[in-house]
Amino acid sequence: MKYVKMLGLAAVAAAALMAFVGASTASATVLCKTAGTSEGTTCPANQAYPAGTSIHAVNSGITKLTTEFLNIECEESTVEGSTNNEGSATETVTGAISILTFSKCNCEVVVLKKGTLEVHWTANTNNGTLTSSGAEVTAQCTVPLIGKVHCIYATSATNLGTATGGAEATMDISSADIPRLATSSLCDKTANWDATYKVTSPKPLFIAGHT
Asked: Average pLDDT of 100-107?
């Protein structure tokens, strides 16, 4: 079960970072060097982060993946990716995760696929919501009286939580439901992932509706 939780956590983390770098045509979003005007609607001229911007984030506190049988916890996690475009009034910023790691965990956690992330600007704020797709994490935990349990969790347009813009932006993954793939029947159909990531680069980072 711990392995399962960690898997969910990895998927969430990937989703979180990708959310900042994400791909979406459903709503306009750009990443901005300063707070957007008109309640976050517009990123000022020449203040949008360009394509190729590297985004790096590390967890703050324990990253947790909760299941019915066991909780997976990791002390360290890193997410990194680069943007494919700047974004505009008609498209969001897109990208893929290049680095996704989980360490010092109470289960064996392995990232199989890093996936992609989307960020959707939240009207009248400098924040956004996060969505992850294609992230796949496997966890193997030892369960008392049962033995080793192996679970795989994957994201598919999975809602992760909130990206909060600021001098040091954060990604808050709150009870994100990460669905499992066909593995052990002991694995929960979904695992709840909770974690907070601090964006160490770039700084500052705000989310706006468009340039």
From this structure: 92
Here the tokens at position 40 are: 């976050």
The percent helix, strand, coil of the chain (3-state, each to 5) is 10, 50, 35
Determine contact, residues 200/76, Cβ cutoff 8 Å.
no
Task: Please give the Cα distance from 17 to 26 (Å, whole number).
Answer: 19
Structural domain count, the chain = 1
Q: Both tokens of residue 149?
A: 């349990």
Range of the domain at 138: 2-208
What's the CA gap between 32 and 6, in Å, rounded? 32
Single-letter code of the amino acid located at 181: L
Q: What is the pLDDT of residues 48-94, one digit of tens each?
A: 999 999 999 999 999 998 877 678 899 999 999 998 888 778 888 77
**Alpha helices in 22-60, H assignment, sequence order:** 37-40
**Contact of 124 with 91, CB cutoff 8 Å:** no
Q: Give the whole-angstrom CA distance, residue 139 versus residue 1.
A: 8
